[in-house]
Each structure stands twice: as C-alpha cells, then as structure tokens.
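thought: user wants a sequence for this fold. calling inverse folding tool.
action: design(structure=
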C-alpha cells in the first residue's frame, strides 16, 4: 500500500510538470525561397510587464535551412540554434534573429512552460522570416502588420495559435513515458483492489 502511495505521488508530480509545459512541432515550407539568404526571427514578448512569468524553449531544429554566423539576441534570451534557445518574458522585448540560407523546409519544437494560462495580460511567441535586408518579410501569407507566419498566444484558456498556410503546427502529445507511468498506476491500482477483495 505504501508503494502505491509513493508511485501515485510520483505520477502526480510528473503529470503536473507535463501539464505546465505545452509543446508544438512547427514545420515551415520555404521551397519558394530555397537557395536565398535571409533571417529566422523568434520573439517572446509580454503584453505588459505584469504578465505572469513564462518561458518558450525552441529545440530540435531540423531541415535543409543552413544557419549562418552567430545570432543577434536581445532581452531575456539564451542559447543558439541548432541547439536549444530559451526565451523568458521578463523584459518587454525578447528577440532572437539568426541569418540563414533557406532550404526547402525546416522544423523545430517550441515548448511553453511556467504560467501558460495567465489572466488577461499574457505573452505571445511569434515566428517571422525576413529577406537578406533583414527588414522585408518573406511573402508567406503572414500577418501583414508584423510579418509573423506563426503566433502562439498564452491565454486564460491555455495556448492558442495561428499559422500561415506555409506553416504546419502540430501539438506534441504527452510523452510516452508519462503514458507508461499512468498505465502502470492503473495496473497497480487494479492489482491492489483485487488483493483486497480476495482477502
């Protein structure tokens, strides 16, 4: 019985950590610009500095887009692609700007953690692609005002996202390890109940 309690506590901790982190696979079709230079830009900015603390982590960068030189970073941003980039919303403007030679496609995972369900004043994560001048947004049916081709809003209901037709956004499911642990809990609970009935 004590073992069951310990395992249940472990499961609760794992589920809490998984619930506080939401991940999305983002795949971008850049074949119209293959072979040209430009910039990949991420921003993670609060609507207001009173927005609850949150972070966005970009990882698992893959694809035929070649990253060039060192990134330009402003605000609470650490790391560099193709490794892991972590952005926090502790300052008003948090920006990651990386020169690249575009290929046919690239993808990455973005994971939001911390308070991902704030009140009215939330935080947004945006992806934009720019031409070699660093100013002109690539024509990928993005937001005409900001040039963003994908945007994630941390709202009171969780994370909402918008993406252009050139971008595919797929929620990443609960990790397999968590499902295995949950199935183990269900099995242990069933065994415990069966033993009580037999006794």
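)
observation: tool returned 199 residues.
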């Amino acid at each position: 019985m004590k073992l069951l309690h310990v395992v249940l506590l472990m499961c609760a901790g794992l589920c809490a950590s998984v619930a506080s982190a939401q991940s999305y696979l983002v795949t971008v079709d850049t074949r119209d610009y293959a072979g040209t230079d430009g910039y990949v830009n991420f921003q993670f900015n609060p609507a207001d500095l009173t927005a609850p603390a949150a972070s966005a982590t970009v990882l698992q960068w893959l694809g035929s887009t070649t990253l060039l030189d060192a990134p330009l970073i402003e605000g609470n941003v650490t790391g560099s692609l193709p490794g892991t980039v972590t952005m926090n919303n502790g300052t008003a403007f948090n920006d990651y700007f990386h020169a690249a030679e575009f290929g046919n496609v690239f993808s990455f995972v973005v994971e939001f953690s911390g308070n991902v369900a704030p009140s009215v004043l939330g935080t947004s994560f945006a992806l934009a692609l720019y031409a070699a001048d660093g100013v002109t947004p690539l024509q990928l049916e993005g937001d005409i005002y900001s040039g963003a081709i994908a945007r994630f809003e941390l709202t009171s209901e969780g994370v909402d996202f918008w993406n252009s037709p050139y971008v595919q956004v797929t929620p990443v499911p609960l990790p397999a390890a968590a499902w295995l642990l949950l199935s183990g809990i269900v099995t242990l609970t069933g065994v415990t109940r069966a033993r009580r009935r037999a006794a």
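thought: summarizing for user.
answer: Here is the designed sequence. Helices lie at 2-19, 176-198.
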